[in-house]
Each structure stands twice: as C-alpha cells, then as structure tokens.
# Entry
Amino acid sequence: MKNILVTGGAGFIGSNFINHILEERDDYFIINLDKLTYAGNLENLKPSEKNKNYTFVNGDICNSELVNYLFEKHKIKYVINFAAESHVDRSILGSEIFYRTNVVGTSVLLDTARKFEVEKFLQVSTDEVYGSLGKEGLFTENNSLSPNSPYSSSKAAADLAALSFHHTYGLPVVVTRCSNNYGPFQFPEKLIPLMIINSLNDKKLPVYGDGMNVRDWIYVIDHNIAINTVFEKGRVGEVYNIGASNEMPNIEIIKLVLKHLEKPEDLIQFVKDRPGHDRRYAIDSSKIQSELGWKPEFSFEEAINKTIDWYVRNKDWWSKIISGEYLKYYEKQYKM
Ligand code: NAD
Ligand code: TDX
# Structure
C-alpha cells in the first residue's frame, strides 16, 4: 500500500484526481489535507468519501505541527501537492495569501517530507511560470522562468523550492507544469465555467481585452493521468510539461460555449483587460510523451461538450457557489 498525502484535494483538479485514481487503484491510501478555502468543496469528493482507502483532514499546509503529525500518524511516504491559491485575478486583487499558501505552505511540506524521508514528492506547477509567448514557439522544460503575475510568481517560487530540495538534500522531487485545465467541478471564477454559467443565466460574458489571448487547453482527467504517470515513473529532479496541444483564443471558446447552449453572441461584453495579461501559452509535451509514454486521451471536442453538459446537469452544485462569497468577489472584479 502506498500512503500518499494529497494536498488541496477538495479543489477542482485534486478532487478529480482522487475520484479517478481511487477507481483505478486499490494500492493507494490517500490522506487528503485541504483547508477548504472558498475553492475547496467536499461535495466534489462524494464518489470517494466512503472509500476505505481515503481519509479527509481539514487543515492548512502552512501548519507545520499538523503536517508533522499527519506524516507520523499515517506513515506518509509520498506527497502530491495540489494545494494552492489558484486564480490570477484574485492574486491581482491581493497577493499575500498566494505567497503564504503557495510558497510558505510548499516549504513546510518540503521540510517535513525531508524529515520523514519520503520516496516521492510531486509538486503540481503550471505553465504560467514560463511567462508569455509571442505568436510563435512553445514552452519546453528548458525555457527560463519568467512569471508575470503574483499567482505565477508564487508558483514559480514553489516550483524552484521543490527542485532546490532535490539538488541540495537529494529529496526525490518531480515537478509537473501543465497548461489550462477544464472539466467538471472547476470553480466558476475560471474562464470556461464562468462563461457556461453566465450563458445559462443569460448574463453578460466579460471578455478581457480583445479576446485574442491564447490558452492551451487540456481535459482535467488527461492532466491527472499525466500526474500519476510522473508520480510513478518520472525521474527525480526532473520537470515534465503537460499539455494536449490545443491552443485557442479565448473568444473562440466563448463563441463555442454560446453555440452549444444556443445562446446569442450579443451576450459577449468586452471589458477592461487584466493587468499584465499574458498573451499566449502553448506547451511542448514531447518529453513526457517520449520518456514516460503518456499522451492525452480526450479530444477537445468530446471533452468540452461533456464539460458543458456537466454544468447544465449540475446546477445544484454551482448555484450554491455563485450565491455566497463568490457574489461579492464577482461584483468587485467585474463591477457589474
Ligand atoms: P483550486 O483553486 O480549484 O483548488 C485549490 C485547493 O487547495 C482548494 O481545495 C483549497 O481549499 C485548497 N487550499 C488552498 N489553500 C490551502 C492551504 N493553505 N492548505 C490546504 N489546502 C489549501 O485549484 P485547481 O485549479 O484545482 O489547481 C490545483 C493545482 O494545480 C494548483 O497548484 C494550481 O496552481 C495547479 N494548476 C492549475 C491549473 C488550472 O488550469 N486550473 C493548471 C496548471 C496547474
Ligand atoms: O472573466 C474572464 N474573462 C476573460 O477574458 C476570465 C476569468 C478570464 N478571461 C481570460 C483570461 C485568460 O486569458 O481567459 C483566459 C483564462 O483565464 P483563467 O481561467 O483565469 O485562467 P488563466 O489566467 O489562464 O490561469 C489558469 O491556467 C493556469 C489557472 O487559473 C491557473 O491556476 C493555472 O495555473
């Protein structure tokens, strides 16, 4: 049995990871440590909550005493660190919690992992650490890091901290840098769920700038299969980019959502651009493909339709979210 500390497992990607992997594997025991911030939601974990190989702990990765206690109690030998403040716009409104959770929290996990001699520590990083691309080219693992937002700078610090623990102490660290995810249980602040939910509610769709910023989209399950591949087979001290070679300008995705939901394009509203808005991300994932044999399984067309339909069917899930703290955030961010 592998005792794995999964942090941030009540968020979008972490909950999809836990639900997926517990169906696939009976040799993983998962201890999910999550602070249940605005983005954490135990409803995401309904499929796993009764699984005998799963336990939930409500707590903060910055809490060294708690983290030490959990390593001791559960004889933790593996860590997959998803926990983070993850939204760029919120990091622009206020950065402190981003540096606290993403940097200090990761350093607490690294120190404790070192003390308890873990066998693998996977740091979930992001392609945003590379900065922004021009019209041409792709991010490879050899690109220098050039993060532009408080969010991405905090993720770059955590990513480099993890690699430094490998270099200095020989901690068996692997780092993954993935592109933009979409799928079920994504918090409504992010582009795709925001556009789906606003369309369903006949609300305006706020598009930053000219709508021509490009993101490279991957279905969350493909990301999670890649994470497990790197977790099992990745060489320690290495970085693996993850992406599905699916670049699209934002406006194209928004029009596709409107078309699928049979809503009019006049819902689109161009608004003030995000400060420091990265123009283009695009991932070269040839290293993980050739070295570890991973490749994406879902086509964009199939998975985006599945995702839109999931939000249509799961109004109960998102209507609770958009009526609470989210409403205040929305008004502040969009002033509408
Ligand atoms: P999310 O915001 O949906 O979930 C984050 C989770 O972390 C939440 O459950 C939250 O409660 C928890 N958390 C926050 N602070 C914590 C703390 N101090 N202690 C314990 N738990 C805490 O984020 P997500 O989209 O699922 O992203 C997960 C990870 O993947 C993040 O590290 C993010 O940087 C990375 N990533 C995300 C994307 C993307 O497109 N969403 C792409 C690449 C990488
Ligand atoms: O209302 C909006 N209008 C808009 O035009 C929102 C929320 C976004 N956008 C644009 C900004 C980006 O160009 O859509 C694009 C995607 O925005 P987000 O969903 O906020 O994602 P992004 O900033 O690209 O960051 C995401 O991908 C990398 C995740 O949030 C990060 O956690 C991950 O590391």
About this structure: The chain has a mean pLDDT of 98. The longest strand covers residues 28-34. The two ends are 51 Å apart (CA to CA). The pocket of nicotinamide-adenine-dinucleotide (ligand 1) is lined by residues 7-8, 10-14, 33-37, 39-40, 60-62, 82-86, 101, 105, 124, 126, 155, 178, 180-181, 187 (CB under 6 Å).
